[in-house]
């Protein structure tokens, strides 16, 4: 079903405003006045409120030139202009935000190796890891609470014995394909067809840059 456009707002004629004020002074309810003049409850409220502030039913003079197009017409014009200039209504793509420093370092890394041939990349293994907790994440959970209510049920986070446990998954990939590791890197290298020498490419996570890991 197509969306129906909402009707444009129209100015209430002065004669109708005068009738609204008269009936209001006569004690008629706002809803009854709305039914009488064919206007919404909010419109009746606005007319009476403006009258109480200014003492007049005349609309305040607006500054600037009067509008040429309605909201609906302006929306159609903008759509046509965008379409004629090659713009399309598309769903935004999702991408992980990274810091400006890492963005520059990654770009420099790619530029330095832009002209490397396939024989080089066929000997590179890229790796990464991710931890999956069974119960909940490792980070602190923040809540808003009043003083001296820390141990109320609604302010507690459930835990399990020994933290619930988790699994650290480590995997790697090369030009020949990818492999999720179960035992060690060497087995993966054999599975990927890299039986001889190869280059292990890791990120700069602290667990990789530690001296013991480098050794």
TrEMBL record:
Residues 17-67 form the Insertion element IS150 protein InsJ-like helix-turn-helix domain. Its main location: nucleus. It holds the Pfam family HTH_28. GO terms for cellular component: nucleus. GO terms for biological process: DNA integration; DNA transposition. Residues 78-115 form the Transposase Tc1-like domain. It comes from the Eukaryota. InterPro entries: Homeodomain-like_sf (IPR009057), InsJ-like_HTH (IPR055247), RNaseH_sf (IPR036397), Transposase_Tc1-like (IPR002492), WH-like_DNA-bd_sf (IPR036388). GO terms for molecular function: DNA binding. It is found in: Nucleus. This is Transposase. It comes from Ignelater luminosus.
């Amino acid at each position: 079903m197509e969306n129906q456009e909402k009707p444009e707002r129209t100015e209430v004629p002065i004669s109708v405003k005068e009738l609204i004020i008269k009936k209001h002074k006569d004690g008629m309810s706002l809803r009854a006045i709305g039914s009488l003049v064919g206007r919404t409850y909010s419109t009746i409220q606005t007319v009476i409120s403006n009258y109480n502030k200014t003492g007049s039913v005349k609309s305040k003079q607006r500054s600037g030139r009067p509008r040429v197009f309605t909201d609906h017409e302006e929306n159609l014009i903008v759509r046509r202009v965008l379409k004629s200039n090659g713009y399309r209504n598309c769903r935004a793509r999702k991408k992980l935000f990274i810091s400006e420093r890492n963005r520059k370092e990654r770009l420099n890394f790619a530029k330095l190796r832009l002209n490397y041939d396939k024989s080089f990349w066929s000997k590179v293994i890229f790796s990464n890891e991710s931890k999956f907790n069974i119960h909940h994440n490792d980070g602190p959970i923040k809540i808003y609470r009043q003083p001296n209510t820390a141990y109320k049920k609604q302010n507690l986070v459930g835990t399990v014995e020994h933290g619930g446990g988790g699994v650290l998954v480590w995997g790697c990939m090369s030009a020949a394909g990818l492999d999720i590791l179960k035992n060690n890197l060497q087995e993966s290298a054999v599975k990927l067809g890299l039986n001889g020498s190869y280059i292990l490419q890791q990120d700069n996570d602290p667990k990789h840059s530690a001296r013991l890991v480098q050794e």
